[in-house]
Amino acid sequence: MLCLVTEVETIGDCYIAVTGLPDPQPDHALRMVKFANECRLKLNELAVSVMPIFGKETADLAMRFGLHSGPVTAGVLRGEKSRFQ
User: Buried b vs exposed e over 35-51: b needs ≥16 C-beta within 10 Å?
Assistant: First the structure.
């Protein structure tokens, strides 16, 4: 399943992404959960692959997820790169 998730911005270690913008998706929550799970699996793969270089503590890398579902107010900002805000 293609998640159709769009990055809004990264603030520090927080990655903010949306789905269902600009076109609403009836299964938006499922798409975000699948996206979060894919991110978690990729992080686990990465941690294992760099363990020989950085040591076994690399296996302790973790990722948190917070999901919100509901109405949102968004606009498109213009500049070097158009983006949702």
Answer: bbeeeeeeeeeebeeee
| Pairing mode of beta strands 14-18, 83-84 | unpaired
Question: With 0-12 CB in 10 A as exposed, 13-18 as middle and 19+ as buried, what is 32?
Answer: buried
Q: Cα angle vertex 24, ends 21, 28, to 5°?
A: 90
pTM flag (> 0.85): no
pLDDT digits (tens, 9 = 90+) for 26-78: 888 898 899 889 989 998 999 999 999 998 888 888 888 888 887 777 666 66
Are the CB atoms for 18 and 76 separated by under 8 Å?
A: no
